[in-house]
Design brief:
Layout lengths: L2 H4 L6 E4 L12 H13 L4 E3 L8 H10 L8 E6 L1 E5 L19 E5 L3 H15 L6 E5 L6 H17 L5 E6 L2 H8 L6 E5 L10 H10 L2 E5 L17 E2 L2 E2 L2 H17 L3 H8 L6 E6 L4 H12 L4 H17 L3
């Protein structure tokens, strides 16, 4: 698939809509609209969502906003693999176990079968209020049954692509092995790489190289690595993926922040721009529930970073690689 023509409205900076699904904390409809408007006003035209995000709340809010915009001017991706089904005995509790501050009156049910994926797309379209979505990603298949779900899920998604229901299909994961397996199927148009191609974590670099060779596009997400790269200094209680920051990552963060200060740039700007430097990358997706924060991210994404900064970063990577050679 020629992504440059098939998804012409996909912008280099995209918005990940988990936060408007009440990720971590409750967000009002007005706040959700405000951040989406800030995203649009910043020139962003790529929006990513999922049924998982707030048990459908993210899709509903995003759809309500996009209903006011010309359909040909934006690209929407959503995800498949988790169906939303009614809780048999809802008790009024919140979905905090999954990190969303929404009533847990629905539950997620894994389903990567053809019927499950077709149903997921239909229900997402209803929540979004759209006639079509542009991209569907298999969502975290490694958390269920990777080999079986890639086989059945991608076959089902490819059938929807071939029928013209969606323009592109892919896999979204934060596991390098799952991303590599997806790239090897020959079926995907896009991979969403979450947190594994960043200034702190390059573990998916070989996957991106493979994607560039095979014409697979990449969407880079979670570029701040649990927020570490959004700040120039880490506090003693900083967390990384549900635990304390490993000493090696803390050391690397300190070095990166010092390098950025040397060149007079913000660490967040370097983190946002890093992913787009790979030839496979089509977009860098960031999310927030605050309009002012997205405007700041958009400005950082557009900030001027000297070429020598990137050249020095490459030299540091080469020296680090050489230090491991026997």
């Amino acid at each position: 698939m020629n992504l440059s023509s098939g998804l012409a409205a996909m912008t280099p900076l995209g918005y990940g809509a988990a936060n408007v699904g009440n990720l971590y904390r409750e967000v009002s409809d007005e706040q959700a609209h405000a951040v989406l408007q800030a995203v649009w006003d910043s020139g962003v035209r790529y929006f990513d969502t999922a049924p998982h995000y707030g048990l459908g709340l993210s899709e509903r809010r995003l759809g309500a906003f996009l209903a006011t915009k010309p359909r040909e001017e934006f690209v929407v991706s959503t995800k498949v693999g988790r169906l939303l089904v009614p809780q048999p005995n809802p008790d009024g509790s919140l979905d905090l176990e999954a990190d969303f501050a929404v009533p847990a009156d629905l539950r997620r049910e894994w389903d990567f079968t053809r019927a499950g994926i077709e149903r997921s797309v239909e229900e997402s379209l209803q929540r979004l209020g759209l006639d079509s979505v542009d991209v569907i990603y298999l969502h975290d298949p490694e958390r269920h049954d990777l080999d079986r779900d890639l086989e059945s899920g991608l076959a089902a998604a490819a059938a929807l692509r071939d029928a013209g229901v969606v323009q592109a299909i892919g896999v979204g994961s934060m596991t390098t092995a799952a991303l590599a397996a997806a790239a090897g199927t020959g079926l995907v148009d896009l991979l969403m790489v979450a947190g594994r191609y960043t200034l702190l974590d390059r573990s998916a670099a070989a996957v991106l190289d493979t994607c560039a060779e095979r014409g697979i596009g990449v969407v880079v997400a979670s570029v701040f690595n649990s927020g570490l790269l959004a700040v120039d200094e880490l506090g003693p209680d900083a967390r990384y993926e549900y635990g304390p920051v490993p000493p090696e990552l803390r050391r690397r963060h300190h070095e990166l922040a010092a390098r950025c200060r040397q060149y007079g740039i913000a660490l967040a700007a370097a983190a946002l721009q890093f992913g787009m430097r790979h030839p496979a990358t089509r977009s860098v997706v960031v999310g927030t529930a605050r309009a002012h924060q997205f405007r700041a991210n958009a400005a950082a994404f557009a900030a001027d970073i000297p070429a020598e900064f990137w050249a020095e970063l490459v030299r540091e990577d080469v020296r680090a690689a050489d230090s491991y050679m026997v």
